[in-house]
Amino acid sequence: MKLPMSLAVAGPAARVELPSLAAAAGLVVLRVGAVLLRPWPLALAVDHAFGPAPAAGAPFAVLVLAGTGSVVLSAVIGVLDMASLRTVEGAAERIGAALRATMFQRTMTRSLRWHDRMRSGELVSRLTTDVGRLLDAVVAVTTSFLPDAVMLIGVLALLIAFDPELALVGLTVAPVLGVLAVRQRRRIRAAQQDARAEAGRLAGATTDLLRNVRAVQAFGRIDRAAAIFGSRNRAVLDVELRAVDVDARWTPMADIVLAIGAALVLVVGGRHVLAGALTVGQLLVILAYLRDLYSPVRGLTRLSVVLAKAGASAVRVREVLDCDEAVEDRPDARPAPRLRSGIRFERVTFGYEPGRPVLDRFDLDITAGETVCLLGPSGIGKSTALLLLLRLYDVDAGRILLDGVDIRDCDQRSLRDRLAFVPQDPWLLDATIAQNIAFGNQNATRVGVVAAARAALVDEFAGRLPFGYDTPLGESGVRLSGGQRRRVALARAAVSPAPMVLLDEPTASLDPVSAAAVIEAIRTTTAHRTMLMVTHDRDLAAIADRVVTLDHQLAGRR
Ligand SMILES: Nc1ncnc2c1ncn2[C@@H]1O[C@H](COP(=O)(O)OP(=O)(O)OP(=O)(O)O)[C@@H](O)[C@H]1O
């Protein structure tokens, strides 16, 4: 079965499931066959039990036969329904899971520049709701398009076989329906695109507000948060109502056109019965078929709504899948050197926005084993220098050398294996303390994690938590204090075998006792390693071999 264009986005994931979808389609076609047989028991009863010439001496037997036939047909239709639904829904869910996994993988590897622009709520909405709408379309195409089309052709063929004139009468409404359907589909698709875009904005704003619920409450700005949410929510409501209106208008239009067709058939068919060209039973079968025609036509129009929704979602899913903004490994990328000689920033220029450099021809040399501290005013670009060394962003000009090798020539994974990073905001996951620490080293053992925790003074507070190292920390480590979070982040660096440690303001906003504890932890965890740290803390800077002060002249010659 060929997938419609709007589903092409699920292509590779959908291809694996094609056999299941084909099996489901086969089952629904069989079901159509059974549905087409459904009016016949009634015709049998009307023509042979009550008609002018009832079957010789056995009208009762005919009625029993017709009743039994109806029950058997209904049972067959029910079983085929169940089997096809199970097959197609299972296949659709597997396609959805694969598509979500591909999208997630894609987002994880896109550049931070892209993430800086894309709100996380918007991404979640694309990964969940938009993928869900694509799945609805997969199910609808299999369970509705094919059977409805077969049903339509079957009913028309039967009508033509019965009475070609009646078939022609029934068909007169088809072109009208066709024109209406095409126009409507365009409108629905446009309305759905607006609706999805607004829904994405609502998801983005909601995630932002939820993440900052502490700020909202602390500043007593629930009203302001409610206003931000409310305006987005209203915008979604408005576009959704417009979309509902566009959808709803279609149903009566289709129904009226179809009813006109049925009325024409009743009048012309009735005349054929009066003229003796058709039995009453046959006219009833034809009218039943016409009713059956309603269901595929309605089904196909519903399908066009589902496809229009899926089409709008497909665009949003494709934007994620097709985005090529990434810090890519070169085809001939090599493993990063082991840091035997040192690091060199050579005339590095970088800006987050074009034409606005944060670092401008920035030079820095760090010898292996050395501890260098970057000092300088806020916003000068100290953290940016660390992010560039991690290659979370690529430099715009100049280069960063690791043992003389440009880091852009190194395979990213091995480069990051050489660097243990303790960011300013500790970046903790909603996991246990032990899992958060083990995040620093994919081969970390429990013993290694506990040793790192001890070195980073995590054991001082972990023992007081309900499940010790296995205590879940909540979203972004919310159950820990700022100082405790920093120590967990340090333990991550401690468990990492990386030869170089990057620290970004590890003692910021800590009281003197906690700061002293963290400095002590840093001394223990970074002994014998190369270290580049950013700090405003003079006590911490004092443990460095060398202090480099960035000023506007050095960093950004702006
Ligand atoms: N993701 C981003 N997108 C756009 N601009 C950014 C981004 N991150 C930082 N900047 C800008 O880059 C400049 C340098 O930021 P950076 O975080 O490197 O400063 P810093 O020296 O570490 O400051 P602080 O001491 O306050 O941490 C700042 O002017 C900041 O506004």
Quick overview:
This protein has 558 residues and is of the alpha/beta class.
Which strand-content bin applies to the residues? 5-15%
Structural class: alpha/beta
Number of strands: 9
Give the second-level CATH assignment, the architecture of the largest domain.
Up-down Bundle
Small-molecule binders? adenosine-5'-triphosphate
Q: Strand order within the widest sheet?
A: 6-7-8-3-9
- Number of domains as seen in the coordinates: 2
Q: Please compute the radius of gyration using only Cα atoms.
A: 35 Å
What is the class of the largest domain in the CATH system?
A: Mainly Alpha
Q: What is the first-to-last residue Cα distance? A: 60 Å
Query: Regions with pLDDT < 50 over 5+ consecutive residues?
Result: none
Explain how this protein is built.
- This protein has 558 residues and is α/β, with parallel strands linked by helices.
- It folds into two domains: 11-321, ABC transporter transmembrane region fold; 342-549, P-loop containing nucleotide triphosphate hydrolases (Rossmann fold, 3-Layer(aba) Sandwich).
- The protein contains 19 helices and nine strands.
- The strands form two sheets. Strands 6-7-8-3-9 form a five-stranded parallel β-sheet, sandwiched between helices.
- α6 runs antiparallel to α8.
- The longest helix is centred in the middle third of the chain and has 53 residues, at 222-274.
- The relative contact order is 0.09.
List the helices and strands and how they pair.
Elements: H1 11-16, H2 18-37, H3 40-50, H4 59-109, H5 112-117, H6 120-162, H7 164-171, H8 174-211, H9 213-218, H10 222-274, H11 280-321, E1 342-350, E2 359-367, E3 371-375, H12 382-389, E4 397-402, E5 405-406, H13 412-417, E6 419-422, H14 433-438, H15 446-455, H16 459-462, H17 482-495, E7 500-504, H18 512-526, E8 530-534, H19 538-541, E9 546-549
Parallel strand pairs: 3-8, 3-9, 6-7, 7-8
Antiparallel strand pairs: 1-2, 1-4, 4-5
Helix pairs in contact: 2-4, 2-6, 3-4, 3-11, 4-6, 6-7, 6-8, 6-11, 7-10, 8-10, 8-11, 10-11, 15-17, 17-18
Bound molecules: adenosine-5'-triphosphate.
